[in-house]
Amino acid sequence: MKQAFVTMLGMQDKMNQKVHADWITQRFEWYRAIWIECGELVEHYGYKWWKKQDPDMDQVKLEVIDIWHFGMSALFTEGETLEDIAELMQGQLIGYQYEGLGVREATEALAQDSLESKGFSVSLFWDLLNAVEMDFDDLYRQYVGKNVLNFFRQDNGYKEGTYIKQWQGREDNEHLVEILAELDSAAADYSDTVYQSLQQRYQSLTA
Questions:
Q1: In the chain, which residue ranges form alpha helices assigned H by DSSP?
Q2: For residues 174 and 193, what is the distance between their CA atoms, to the nearest angstrom?
Q3: Per residue in 32-42, pLDDT tens?
Q4: Residue 93, pLDDT score
Q5: Which InterPro entries does the UniProt record give (predicted)?
Q6: What is the pTM of this model?
Q7: Which structural domain range is residue 110 located in?
């Protein structure tokens, strides 16, 4: 698990550098992004008892991955190596036991902790991971996919405002779900294939 943490932390660092070369020293408010993503997750899951709602679990799980992006970013501090951070993350899971929280309750606990600590709790995130019935392999596979999508967005004008997020009436996130379902996450060229598949769909849209 530690090596997988190191790999994902390295990918996140590269993504953040693409947005701002000195992102660690900027001390961005990652906690704010975390609790807002928690709100978006609950929107997809449903909370309105006064109307019929069916959870969109594909989108819920993508929000979990978005939270993981911001959560890992919040753990970076100047002078610490990826291995140091991975060890800290692993340490938070020593003796971890899932207490059976529901999706909304686990999400709210994580959001509340982020607001109070202005940080990120790996163990509370693990509660959410379990609540949405994702395992570590799911986290890794979907994280890599969403990281690639984030790179793709930046390469196609996301920061400049020229990127087209709606593809044929659906968000790019929804296309990503379909692409990931078709690919082998154990393949050595997994991330490259995800990028190429996104590019093919996007080019057909903008051609």
A1: 2-19, 23-26, 30-45, 57-74, 82-92, 103-117, 122-131, 136-155, 172-182, 190-206
A2: 17
A3: 999 999 999 99
A4: 94
A5: dUTPase/dCTP_pyrophosphatase
A6: 0.81
A7: 1-134
Domain annotation covers residue 90:
yes
128 & 161 share domain: no
Phi, psi for 49 (deg, rounded to 5): -70, -15
Is the Cβ–Cβ distance between 119 and 74 less than 8 Å? Answer: yes
Rounded CA gap, 127 and 71, in Å?
Answer: 14
pLDDT at 206 over 80: no
Helix, strand or coil, per DSSP, at residue 198 = helix
Tokens standing for 71? 């959560």
Taking each helix axis as running N to C, give the angle between helix 136-155 and helix 2-19, from 0 to 180 degrees, rounded to the nearest 10.
20
Instruction: Using the 3D structure, point to which of 134, 158, 183 is the last residue of a domain.
Output: 134
**176 within 8 A of 149, measured Cβ to Cβ:** yes
Residue 157 lies in a domain: yes
C-alpha to C-alpha distance for 169 and 92, rounded to whole angstroms: 41
